[in-house]
Write a structure and sequence with these properties.
By secondary structure, the protein is an alpha/beta fold. It is built from 3 helices and 8 strands, in the order βαβββαβαβββ. Strand 6 and strand 7 form a beta hairpin. It is globular. Keywords: Lyase.
Length: about 130
Amino acid sequence: MRIIVNSIFVEDQDKALEFYSKTLGFVKKHDVPTGEHRWITLVSQDDQDGTELLLEPNEHPAAKDYQQRLFAEGIPVTMFGVADIHEEYKQLVEKGVQFTMEPAEMGNVTIAVFNDTCGNLIQIIQQ
């Protein structure tokens, strides 16, 4: 058994697709109409056959509440691994990404947290 898709709730699929592809550099794998919304997944440039990130609309009240509560509490919804967190931080800041936590060492890892502009906090980690 392996993880093939991990979903993240977003307020606006088009805005999320723009942010995750153009700002973060993920590659769109699927964009399929599903009625009012779309099945949009992205993958890492370095692993295009790897785990897909699904940009899922947060229209269900439970999803919206879950997303808003995590954001309000400062809890990231997911974590992305990076090779050089200080370089990644610098590049993202130059692109206008707003961090709620600058790179900080936590034991043998370094983490940082940013706002994805779509209702979520995302953590990046260098192991």
